């Protein structure tokens, strides 16, 4: 009975592991569309934009500077496309990219926006009615100044995406200077109909408040602040950002919500991640993480959910939070959908936070302190 109820509000392609997927199929053989999570949308801040409660991050798509062992090939491209299609199949239709994701901005090679645009195009050929919400970002590079630089960058992003507008345009990080002009540029983008909603990213509480006030004077709501937030990176709870988002009605979009794969439990002291992540999540760090990971796994077992689904559910339970985990393939995307449609209890949420307090946070992206 409990399983049937979970399925009715969650996605058909979601469960914690393959065995439970089969059990779910046996219990709920209703129409696929009815079990999609499509109805489960949230409004971003005070904007009119509604997105799924969880989005998919596309940083790794085409990237050769941090992800993918510094190599991009056809196999990885097909896997990324499958991640996109599976997300849409599961009812997750909100995708986060940026002009600097991938290897394309400087060298004209493939980048994440180009790939996302192609995946949307291909999908529309099969499914013309499909509705996808695209979020992309402006890189506040020191030589970019003035409101027109925001519009110019946005138009280039739209070209790469092959779209005439996007749902959400965000300032990727605060600039060293020029921030007032960037906020003016966001407002211009809304007024010119190039975006439905605007947001910021890596903004501190005080920057968030001033961006909110400046846009408000033009009657434009600041929809979101995208920041690093996970069970083991709770800085937004400590630096006033989460409280300010809640107070102002700005949605907190949580990036790196599964701590770049570490909270899934697949990396262990014996099997640490390779590449740049290996410098952050060392065997020593992973050893200290094990008690928390063990408890996450146990809690998940009571719901037939995976650790990944538990830690994403924990974030959604904080309210006013939309996590955007990165998916490299169909399996990862499918698993994310199973984070929705059920809920940890208050006691479990508190217990996991207390256990996480024992783990020292890693160093975040320094721009959040600019
Ligand atoms: N605004 C900003 O400054 C900023 C900064 C960072 C990220 N972001 C956004 O946030 C998104 C997500 O953050 P993120 O990519 O840093 O980290 P994340 O979502 O916490 O982790 C993503 C990584 O975890 C692994 N993974 C994903 N699903 C898994 C699963 N079901 N089971 C096991 N492993 C899984 C994959 O890497 P492996 O398979 O290689 O382990 C994947 O690339 C990005 O794509 C981007 O859109 C924004």
UniProtKB/TrEMBL annotation:
Alphabetized CDD domains for the sequence: AKR_AtPLR-like (cd19093)
Highest taxon of the lineage: Eukaryota
Residue stretches making up the NADP-dependent oxidoreductase domain: 53-355
Keywords: NADP, Oxidoreductase
A Pfam match: Aldo_ket_red
Gene3D superfamilies given in the database record: NADP-dependent oxidoreductase domain
Recorded GO CC terms: cytoplasm
GO molecular function terms attached to this record: oxidoreductase activity
InterPro entries: AKR, Aldo-Keto_reductase, Aldo/ket_reductase_CS, NAD(P)_OxRdtase_dom_sf, NADP_OxRdtase_dom
Protein's UniProt keywords contain Transport: no
Alphabetized PANTHER family for the sequence: AFLATOXIN B1 ALDEHYDE REDUCTASE, OS07G0143000 PROTEIN
Protein name: NADP-dependent oxidoreductase domain-containing protein
Source organism: Salix udensis
């Amino acid at each position: 009975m409990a399983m049937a109820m979970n399925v009715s509000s969650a996605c058909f392609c979601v469960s914690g592991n393959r065995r439970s997927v089969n059990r779910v199929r046996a219990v709920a053989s209703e129409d696929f569309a009815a079990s999609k999570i499509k109805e489960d949308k949230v409004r971003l801040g005070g904007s009119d934009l509604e997105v799924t409660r969880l989005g998919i991050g596309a940083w790794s798509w085409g990237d050769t500077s941090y992800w993918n062992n510094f190599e991009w090939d056809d196999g990885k491209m097909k896997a990324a496309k499958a991640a996109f299609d599976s997300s849409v199949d599961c009812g997750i239709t909100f995708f986060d990219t940026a002009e600097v994701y991938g290897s394309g901005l400087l060298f004209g090679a493939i980048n994440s926006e180009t790939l996302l645009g192609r995946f949307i195009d291909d999908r529309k050929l099969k499914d013309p009615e499909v509705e996808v919400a695209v979020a992309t970002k402006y890189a506040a590079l020191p030589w970019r100044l003035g409101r027109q630089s925001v519009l110019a960058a946005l138009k280039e992003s739209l070209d790469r995406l092959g779209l005439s507008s996007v749902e959400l345009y965000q300032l990727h990080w605060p600039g060293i200077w020029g921030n007032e002009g960037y906020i003016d540029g966001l407002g211009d983008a809304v007024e010119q109909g190039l975006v439905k909603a605007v947001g910021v990213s890596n903004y501190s509480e005080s920057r968030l408040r001033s961006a909110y006030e400046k846009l408000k004077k033009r009657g434009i709501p600041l929809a979101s602040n995208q920041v690093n937030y996970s069970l083991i990176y709770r800085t937004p709870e400590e630096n006033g950002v989460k409280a300010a988002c809640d107070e102002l009605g700005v949605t907190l979009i949580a990036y790196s919500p599964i701590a770049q794969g570490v909270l899934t439990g697949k990396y262990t002291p014996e099997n640490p991640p390779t590449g740049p992540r290996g410098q952050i999540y060392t065997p020593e760090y992973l050893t200290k993480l094990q008690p928390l990971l063990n408890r996450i796994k146990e809690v998940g077992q009571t719901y037939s959910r995976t650790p990944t689904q538990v830690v994403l559910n924990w974030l959604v339970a904080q309210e006013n939070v939309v996590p955007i985990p990165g998916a490299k393939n169909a399996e990862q995307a499918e698993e994310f959908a199973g984070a929705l449609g059920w809920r940890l209890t208050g006691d479990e949420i508190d217990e996991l936070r207390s256990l996480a307090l024992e783990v020292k946070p890693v160093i975040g992206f320094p721009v959040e302190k600019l």
